[in-house]
What we know:
With 512 residues, the protein is α/β, with parallel strands linked by helices.
Amino acid sequence: xxxxxxxxxxxxxxxxxxxxxxxxxxxxxxxxxxxxxxxxxxxxxxxxxxxxxxxxxxxxxxxxxxxxxxxxxxxxxxxxxxxxxxxxxxxxxxxxxxxxxxxxxxxxxxxxxxxxxxxxxxxxxxxxxxxxxxxxxxxxxxxxxxxxxxxxxxxxxxxxxxxxxxxxxxxxxxxxxxxxxxxxxxxxxxxxxxxxxxxxxxxxxxxxxxxxxxxxxxxxxxxxxxxxxxxxxxxxxxxxxxxxxxxxxxxxxxxxxxxxxxxxxxxxxxxxxxxxxxxxxxxxxxxxxxxxxxxxxxxxxxxxxxxxxxxxxxxxxxxxxxxxxxxxxxxxxxxxxxxxxxxxxxxxxxxxxxxxxxxxxxxxxxxxxxxxxxxxxxxxxxxxxxxxxxxxxxxxxxxxxxxxxxxxxxxxxxxxxxxxxxxxxxxxxxxxxxxxxxxxxxxxxxxxxxxxxxxxxxxxxxxxxxxxxxxxxxxxxxxxxxxxxxxxxxxxxxxxxxxxxxxxxxxxxxxx
Length: 512
């Protein structure tokens, strides 16, 4: 069979404009039966806009979409799904309080008695048959909210497949998954491919693209700049196509912190909730202290306790040699601590406010004069930091939701710099942003450290930890299990500490 006969999708000369932004410029994209095709590019390159055009979320302005040999102009995602085109968004769109089966068949429930009564038994059985066919070990009667993020994602895939799917779009599907869950996802994807389902895989993780995809198409500034067979292209070549420049990810080998640098934060035997157990560490002036560990190690929980977002049960915290008691985020901010949450959209930003309003969000009282806000002063300060951090935005009045992920992250940084925070906690600072924006965030963090700011960086990506940290604290099951100077750190050493308590538990259980 020819490649043309295998083709399920051909998008030709797709063009799309938003106010002040030419998002897509005559983009071509094609997809074959049973193929896993990567779609990559920096944030703002046009990947999501192209998929929105395909699924009817934001119809194209011009161009043609050919699906199964016919012209396609979907009105909305519902119609696209009914035609066999499904999308799994980075933020899952499910109902936690319903069961797995109810989520899969919502709006298409099994009924009896002339449609007057729900046939729960039949619906659960239908879900069980579907999950078994997809080799997903999930109980259809389980409440969705009790499942891990990885299992919830599989349920959403099952829901899409139940619509006689021909094309599945996966947008950053591994961002919140463990390595085991990623392997399970890839197994399911390969199985779907053997069944003829074509997949579009959007990701910033270059290693995964090499593992799971057949071809890769690169967008840059709204234009298609190339399609390659994955086996014939290197990671460096893909990145060069994405950003128009070469970006090197070399690990740091020596600390940049001067000998004898002051300790700005000392934490001693901190306990908070179930995942912060006797945590102790020190942070020095101008240091980037990496926090590594597996999912559930307690890294984010430690950060939240330090920032006053979670209640501290016991332990002490000293800032610049003085004991402090942090009971709320307001307390932390007053002591010069800023927190960049791993979920910036939920905890770090107000997406429906402007760039300038977000930039001064933590410092509004400084711009008050009686009952009024000094608008010119706000504008001046916001513009200064937008320029300093090279935040790409048409105007300061642009709604933050319209910025790319990397630029949103920079606005969070601007918020805490305007507040003049001396201790910055970066929790998964590059999650969901592209390699170009990652490099800019790395440069910014190094500049801040050189200026004397002290940074705690939590990351699940070991290459990132090794590239950025001066020292590394490793956690496992709520406890600090190791500390490494960057000169002695390696992925193997980190993983040994990251699994240490689990190994001890197994050994203890065997009576060795």
